[in-house]
Amino acid sequence: MREDQSSSLQHLDDAELVQRAQSGQRAAFESLFHRHQDRVYTVALAIVGNATDAKDVVQETFVRAYKRLGSLRTDGGVVAYLCKTATNVAIDLVRARKTGKQVSLDAMKSSGIDIPDFSNSPQAHAELQVTNEELMNALLSIPDDQRIVLVLHHLEGVRVDEIADMLGIPMGTVKSRLGRGREWLRRRLYGKVID
Amino acid sequence: MKCETVRQLLAESDANALSAGVSPEVAQHLGTCESCAEYHKELQTVSAGLGGLTIVAPSELYPQVMQALPAKPGVLSRKMALLLSMLVVALCALIIEYYYFYGQYRQQEHVISTSCVESMPGVIPTPNTEEYSQTSQLTLEQLTPSQ
User: Which chain B residue's Cα is nearest to A28?
Assistant: First the structure.
């Protein structure tokens, strides 16, 4: 019965799922979760850098979305909303970790680095000839400040000036972090230095 | 243009500029410098790779999130909640204002009425407090029947 309900919801678009979830259909929200969990998890993992914190960020993101279902946009902006929320939660977590401030997320209880499991991830980078695993590992080796800028710009499509506003740093700093981050990735993935 | 300058410009450029097109000066340099052209291509590939990066979420995430969800979703839209809270604040402000100004009005009314009466011809002005209390005490003594 439950599986039937889930499969009948699969063909609906985000807007319809949100409307159904707003009217109290929990299965519709679960469908939204299944549809967007990978994207939200990728953004979270790329920012926080470990699987335990990334899972907590995803949890917090969907809980917030559920609590604000009444205002969740139904015009196709669901993914953007989820990714933006995940980004904010993840950045707060990284900042708290830097300042050593205690945060409420359970993630902070376990400070050990949890290596993410990439075994099911698609190998989509034929041109780069690297797997998602290699690309993510290279990304995780970049310092936090550069990685956050890279993720915001490339994964989420946030403009340079918007990143500057978001992080409260000058545009020049965003550009230089972007440059250093890309250069780091290029060296890691291509294994060479061009003089 | 020097290779170093070109590479810095490429590395720091917007993702769209990196994929869509570079400035004429940079393009001219890329046309003549094989090493920088290769660098440009590699940056483009890294950029495209990042854009399409997807990691499959672990299976334990589903029960974890579903367990954390509240029993019922939030029904009030953010706009409605904001409107309601603004209404409550406005109401509180009105009540405070009413009591504050009403109190001031009453005080002013008292002062005006006292000064009006005192300024009337033939009306003896109110004595100062000390005199007044002495007077009232005398009056009371006088009024008290002597035994």
Answer: B73
